[in-house]
């Protein structure tokens, strides 16, 4: 039976990830046919630089797919069947602040974890809600938004609170990147690995790693004890996750498993379980944001300029798990494939001893009606306590956004495991308020110096 082609909009079309996502779509046209791809970005100048590269990728595979580049929401979303969302509010100049402000106070500086992730969340929740409203106004009634926007856990919680009926599936490629490395270690294809996993986004653990029905966690555990979550020659990592900072991240799984060997941790747990060591090895003047701007960003923009001048597109972007995963998920949504993927969903008993309404990351079968989570049962007390603390921090941050509450923002920062004291939390929060004045909702103090504010 012939599949009807879809209209797809990519919100955040100016992202340097866009060409890789589109290349992933092009090699899967038989599985996910497309009538039109629309790039949408409020930064039209940046999008216009990326767009010719994207069009070249499309035309190398198809002459029939319509290609539209716009900053008009109605043009972008009218009758769209799918929207891929990958917004970065404040772009890399604000990511740099997210990372460097905490480091000035001796606290982890990271894009999605710790104070940086909380700051990024305060910038992103309300724009994500605005995007949902635009899609619901203009798109097909059955359209799905597949959201890649970080920080995924906070964005997902904000959407749950503010737009509970929205057809949004929140995903993250970090567990899938880990599965790619696991598969390389085991000498199999990533799609041959079936995992059990529980947690929140960027805060979880693999409990079983099945290949052909056999759990091979013990084998991977033994490998991690020697090399971290890398192949022996580190050749399996794709360029997206192979910069020096990423190699260090994959290797830092080893000390975590040395102490807590039962499960394989998400690599981002290093920021929460060993923050002192992380800070000691971070350069406060040159963070991951600078590494990306001087690496992937510069390389792709240079390639775009060369293509404009010569008509030849250099090999400047990589098609890795980031693009492949979002296409896998979209195919399963579109055609009710019931494929099993790790996604972010409302708990509803999937992790039995976490709150029913928590936004958790677990395996789920992706159907045309959305995800059907796999029940992971009760999790051990140690892991549950860590999850509850992180969940409370994220939920307080969402409430701070909704209520414009300085106190709840301060509570969120104080409760985060990367922040050692309330004094650190206040100093970082106050500096971040000044840096984010063009992006954050206003945070009002109900009390100042212990006295009610009038």
Summarize this structure briefly.
The protein is of the alpha/beta class and 454 residues long. The protein is built from 17 helices and 15 strands.
Account of the protein in words:
The chain starts with 5 loop residues before the first strand and ends with a strand. The chain is built from 17 helices and 15 strands. The mean pLDDT is 94. The strands form 4 sheets. A 6-stranded parallel beta sheet has the order 3-2-1-4-5-6, with helices on both faces. Strands 7, 8, 9 and 10 form a 4-stranded antiparallel beta sheet that branches. Strands 11-12-13 form a 3-stranded antiparallel beta sheet. Helix 2 crosses helix 13 and helix 5 packs across helix 6. The longest helix is centred in the first third of the chain and has 25 residues. The chain has a domain of 166 residues: Rossmann fold (3-Layer(aba) Sandwich), CATH 3.40.50. It is an alpha/beta fold.
Strand order of the largest sheet: 3-2-1-4-5-6
What percent of residues are in strands? 15-25%
Q: What's the end-to-end separation, in Å? A: 67 Å
| Reported CATH architecture of the domain at 6-171 | 3-Layer(aba) Sandwich
CATH class of the domain at 6-171: Alpha Beta
Number of strands: 15
CATH topology of the domain at 6-171: Rossmann fold
Poorly predicted regions: none
Discrete helix count: 17
Q: What structural category do the secondary elements indicate? A: alpha/beta
Radius of gyration, in angstroms, nearest whole number? 21 Å
